[in-house]
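Dissemination and training. As part of the outreach component of the grant, students in the summer workshop were shown how a complex can be specified as a set of sequence lines and then modelled as a single object. The example used during the hands-on session is reproduced here so that future cohorts can follow it. Participants entered these lines:
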Amino acid sequence: MPLANAMGRLLRGAIRSDVYHSFRASKTTVIAGIVTALIFAASFAAPLIALQNPYDPASLNLSDAMKPPVFFGGEWAFPLGTDDQGRDMYSTILYGTRLSLIVGFASVLLAMAIGISFGLVAGYFGGAADVQLTFPAFLVALTLDGVVRGMVAAKILDIDHNDIAVPVIVISLGLAFWPQYARTVRGVVLIERSKDYVNAARIIGVSPWRIMLRHILPNAMSPVLVIATINLAVAIITEATLSFLGVGLPKTEPSLGALIQIGNDYLSSGDLWITVSPGIMLAVLVLAVNLLGDWMRDALNPKLR
Amino acid sequence: MALLEVRDLKVEIPTRRGTLTILDGVSFDIAQGEVLGLVGESGAGKSISGLAIIGLLEPPARIARGTVTLEGRRIDNLPREELRKVRGARIGTIFQDPLTSLNPLYTIGRQLVETIQTHTTLTNRQAETRAADLLKSVGIPAAESRLNAYPHEFSGGMRQRVVISLALCAEPVLVIADEPTTALDVSIQAQIIALMKRLCREHSTAVLLITHDMGVIAETADRVAVMYAGRIAEIGPVAALVNRSKHPYSAGLMGSIPTIERRLERLPQIPGSMPRPGAVPAGCAFAPRCTFTRDLCRAERPELIETFETRCACFQYDPRWQAAHV
Amino acid sequence: MLTVALVSFVLFNYVGDPINGMVGQDTSLQDREKLREQLGLNDFIGVRFARFVGNAVQGNFGLSYRTAEPVLRMIMERLPATLELSLVAALFAVLVGVPMGVYSGLYPKRALSRVMQAVSLIGISLPTFLIGIILILTFAVLPNTCRSGLSIGGVVVIDCSLLAWLALPAFGRGDVVDLGGWRTGFLTASGLKAVILPAVTLGLFQLTLIMRIVRAEMLEVMRTDYIKFARARGIRSRNINFGHALKNTLVPVITITGLQVGQIIAFAIITETVFSWPGVGQLFVQSVSAADMPVMAAYLSFIGLLFVVINLLVDLFYYGVDPRLRAAQAAGKTV
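and obtained this result:
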């Protein structure tokens, strides 16, 4: 498949080149890479290393609620404390991170798919004017969520909102972010389209699709990757924000944002742990992804080579 | 005493893969009012020489060795502020692309007045008058009204005239012109060269004319220095160098200029290419491509040797040549 | 603009049966039909859209599903709060962000610049609500719940009364003064204090962005030929840095910042929720939770309008500042 080939080539070239060298050379980036890898691994291994499954209501015990973490006088059974429903914080953070990551990746892939397709078509076949108004992604996602709620409320969609919460968020985020990809890809296509090798291919009779996928797309992968990393960070933040506001993922299966929101009510009484630990996890995760994105942008920037 | 004396100038760039030597011990003089041409291929170190003289090397490039003396005073080791005063007031500069040399958001009048007032104590009014006079002297019509024009409102040739006026506005004793005509149409080139010649003669300004265009050199320069791989291969009066060059490289260079006077089937070419910094061979830099190479050439680096008309960095003119083997 | 109105309208009508929100559960089917007929909901879609636009232009956005108040009044009541907050946040972002960016662009290798880079990285990594919470913790909860001060190794380093100095309100707007319909918080001490934390929260992201953009632009401008030429002419560093370089840097920066207004509005939603700030953002979140379509539609229409206006202003600004655009325009006219 041409896309896989292109990415494979890119990866091989990257490892052999200055890019890899600059990765190794920058300590912060290496640390960021390790941290990210650790978080990924931990969250996907959640069922194995967590102490309970916080999404299974049957495993929760209300009498365990509101226990502080170990170093503030709690017990080792709940090392980071519990929330108001008796969920173990450590496990919930792991599961929550996994959820955040899944939503983040899925929405980025969706946005990439839509955006690249649109961008290729718009650039190659022309037409489709500039997407002038850049509605902030967050607003788009929020609105879409509201629309779905409305549809649920009016019984147009006769399902429980909670069941479809995850796909709704993923689709909302995907729809919010695709324009960036489209614009970038379209720009690249416009530039490459007038180059000689494309004209040559056209004259020989190569089909437009083939030209776009095999020849032009690889050139666009570099900026697309950069956008994708930044996008991932923003998607994670946006999902967390939506959940915090109560319009994202439901509280019964909390993600990091929802956890923070749960803890928000207890801040003024000094019970900080429900908010602080997921907060730290969220911050570290996004920071690491951003650092990687920064490094990638510098490393793949042809002007700086 | 020469106006400008460059002695053994060495410019290096430290990189991840080692230190690259861009200029390797370059020496030359420029006398008062003289036009010295500096020629060579791209990458030979011509522009770097000019930048090094006025201290505008972009870090991490730096002067590793050597001295630059202007009017008897060393300028390469001056503190930043002192060197700044030298630039513009004593040494003017003209760069290659007039479009990018001018700030697009400032009127040319503003850029002229700013330069004038940096180096003199004229009032705004006086500076403006001076600016208008300068524009007139470089041949820009309706000078007063053009002071309020922006760079993009001028054509390429006009812009370069503006740049020339900026370089000369503080009455420097030396002008470094780095490829002043390369970005211009051929028809305009002649005009600009003529303008430069006239102005510099009028003000007895010396010129370091950096270019790869031999035609311009032949017409304009008094003396010429040929650069190769960061070193000077040959230096001497223009007629001697153009017609009777001693160094195999300069001879090849001059021979490859198409002229009406010769009939040729093919343009003579020197086989191979100039070594990049960091890949310069030990001994003479030109040895791998030269037809006269002997073991002496590969062993030692030649210094500039006095020959009849020019100074030439070639062992053919060294007493040891006879004894050397191929 | 029309697109936004269309979208809002679609929301309004197709998603969420307005009747359901307006009448109780027990109303009979026939009564509902009568109401529908009365409100013209059975008319052709084009007519309804035209009516919507017509109403909207006159300021009639209908009644909220949730509170049955006129939507326009709800929005107008809360608009000053949001606008004041956004203004302070924007000022904060620009007045601190631009100098920081200029400094780290001119002297990128200095220690302070690297610190700024690090801070900016943290600034864009922390979600707005998290920043808000951190600020609340530091400036409201900590000082107020302090019992024995901060101690290191048993020695009290900062006691509670010192922390009390830091205390800033984290809830609401403080006292407001009614200036004929516009309720401002700027004229009271408590109002001014109340706006600090939310404005910093809202502005921090912007500040980071501005700082990064200014820095990147400065770095690029300093490498241009005209700066090189200015140096070669012996122009003083001060004039180069703050004259030539700064002017060329600010033009694209201001354009980008102007277009970021949308972000400020969007993040105001979050900030208002965290700080219980009574603005239109908080209203929007509440209406999304309750699927209150009219409010959502009206809010989006307003935002759309704001976008169009801002874009226009930015275009005008760009036109006024860059002489090349003016020339192109003039050339276009004479041709």
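Confidence is low (pLDDT under 50) at residues 129-133 of chain A. Students were then asked to discuss how this feature might be tested experimentally.
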